[in-house]
Design a protein that fits this description.
CATH superfamily of the largest domain: CRAL-TRIO lipid binding domain
Protein name: Rho GTPase-activating protein 8
Order of helices and strands: HHEEHEHHEHHEHHHHHHHHHHEEH
Organism: Falco tinnunculus (Common kestrel)
Number of helices: 18
InterPro entries: ARHGAP1_RhoGAP (IPR049592), CRAL-TRIO_dom (IPR001251), CRAL-TRIO_dom_sf (IPR036865), Rho_GTPase_activation_prot (IPR008936), RhoGAP_dom (IPR000198)
GO molecular function: GTPase activator activity
CATH architecture of the largest domain: 3-Layer(aba) Sandwich
Distance between the termini: 67 Å
Radius of gyration: 24 Å
Helix content: 25-40%
CATH class of the largest domain: Alpha Beta
Pfam families: CRAL_TRIO_2, RhoGAP
Strand order of the largest sheet: 1-2-3-4-5
Largest sheet: 5 strands, mixed
Structural class: alpha/beta
Length: about 475
């Protein structure tokens, strides 16, 4: 069958899908989706595309990899969206993550004759994504696939390598995503949720009944993951730094500081679960047994991400969102105020973490992990909202809007203190640890820039008995 025949067949299948969807939706007609991000600045270089919310950052998967979603239902009719610009914006977004392992979730529902890109565009798009995009894409989940997808697969099969093909997983229902990633972090369009409900309604009697999840059990006395800092402190003789953090940081200081891509790579999901289980049972963990330096790195990120409340606390969320609206000359002062307002325990743990990350960034000539890279990795592990999705609203520095749409949060730490209380007395020197918008925004639209050094050494050995 020729390519033209396949394209005609694909169009027929797409029209069939539309007819079925229209019937299940009781005759709803296709309407352009509303603007998805009204806070997006009109000066954004891809405002015309980004405003629809087609591409979004959606937290992490079960391996700690960043998740990017593509929602077809948010694509307006083709005459209202420049597909060349869409491709440019997609690359613009992915460029911020391709140095790290990442995952893509493609919500197929909503692709219609009115808004679908041409076959030529799809072929161009696939060719545009060279090795750097494909190598670190570890999983591509296609949700609600139809015969249209199967036909596309036949068209692209000669172009797609066997290795890349193994990364693609087809999921018939949204619930299937729970096995692979943190479902609650996803900002799933309501249209997709309704479609999923319709599909399940048609399959009543064919699908196994949903098993009710039993109420959570009380944590073990030795529990480390998913419990509060206070709980860990109470069960560990008043120690402020959790054992998981102490052991992972200590190991990485000894053996990981010069490892290229530290914190960028993922590890075996089963290995991470096994290590978590050992910690939760109060058993010792020897990272040498796993022969993978990325295991302790992922464990550290996982520990932070599974805290019931983020290290920077829910209370600080709105204050952090407001940092970029503060005049640049006052921004460091505002950051200090936020950090100083943290609970004492959170402050000590944050300082411990940031001083370690500073050590990592000092070896960036070897590990390629600049402060900007570390911010990209750790952003969503330090702050998220108490409700809704885990991504932050767009944080845009106005004075850099035209140049690189850089968005940051300057986290600060002490260097000259000798104890926890000294933050209110001693001098405070900022560590400019950038939590870039691509780590924390719905639209994922900032560009990477390097750490702007203050000329001061943020953390020094012996600065605190905790370090």
């Amino acid at each position: 069958m020729s390519e033209i025949d396949y394209e005609k067949l694909a169009e027929i299948e797409l029209q069939k899908d539309e007819a079925e969807d229209t019937q299940s939706e009781q005759g709803e007609t296709f309407m352009p989706p509303p603007l998805m991000d009204p806070e997006l600045n009109i000066n954004h270089p891809y405002y015309d595309v980004a405003r629809h919310g087609i591409i979004q950052l959606a937290g992490d998967d079960n391996s700690g990899r960043k998740v990017i979603t593509f929602s077809c239902c948010r694509m307006p009719p083709s005459h209202q969206l420049n597909h060349t610009r869409l491709l440019e914006y997609l690359k613009y977004t992915l460029d911020q993550y391709v140095e790290n392992d990442y995952t893509v979730v493609y919500f197929h529902y909503g692709l219609k004759s009115l808004n679908k890109p041409s076959l030529k565009w799809l072929q161009t798009a696939y060719k545009e994504f060279d090795r750097k995009y494909k190598k670190n894409l570890k999983a591509l989940y296609v949700v609600h696939p139809t015969n249209f997808i199967k036909i596309l697969w036949n068209i692209f099969k000669p172009l797609i390598s066997h290795k890349f093909g193994k990364k693609i997983t087809y999921l018939n229902y949204l619930s299937d995503l729970r096995e692979h990633l943190k479902y609650d972090q996803l900002n799933i369009p309501q249209e997709v949720i309704r479609h999923d409900e319709n599909l399940r309604g048609k399959q009543k009697g064919k699908l196994p009944s949903v098993v009710k999840v039993p109420p959570p059990r009380p944590p073990l006395p030795t529990q480390q993951f998913g419990v509060s800092l206070q709980y860990i402190k109470d069960k560990n003789k008043g120690e402020l730094i959790p054992p998981v953090m102490k052991e992972t940081v200590s190991y990485l200081k000894r053996k990981g500081l010069q490892v290229e891509g530290l914190f960028r790579r993922s590890a075996s999901i089963q290995t991470i679960k096994d290590v978590q289980k050992l910690y939760n049972q109060g058993k010792s963990v020897n990272f040498d047994d796993y022969h993978d330096i990325h295991v302790p790195a992922v464990i550290l990120k996982t520990f932070l991400r599974e805290l019931p409340q983020p290290l920077l606390t829910f209370e600080c969320y709105d204050h952090i969102l407001g940092i970029t609206s503060v005049e640049s000359s006052l921004r460091v002062t505002r950051c200090k105020q936020i950090i100083q307002g943290l609970p004492e325990h959170n402050y000590v743990v944050l300082k411990y973490l940031i001083c370690f990350l500073h050590m990592v960034s000092q070896e960036s000539i070897y590990n390629r992990m600049t402060a900007s890279s570390l911010a990209c990795v750790f952003g969503l592990n330090l702050i998220w909202p108490s409700k809704g999705t885990t991504s932050l609203s767009a944080l845009v520095r106005e004075e850099e809007m035209e140049r690189d749409r850089k968005c940051l949060l300057e986290a600060t730490a002490l260097t000259s203190c000798t104890g926890a209380d000294a933050r209110h007395e001693g001098s405070i020197k900022p560590i400019s640890l950038y939590l870039r918008a691509k780590s924390c925004s719905r639209s994922a639209f900032s560009n990477p820039t390097d750490l702007r050094s203050s000329g001061q050494k943020p953390c020094t050995r012996g600065a605190s008995p905790l370090l």
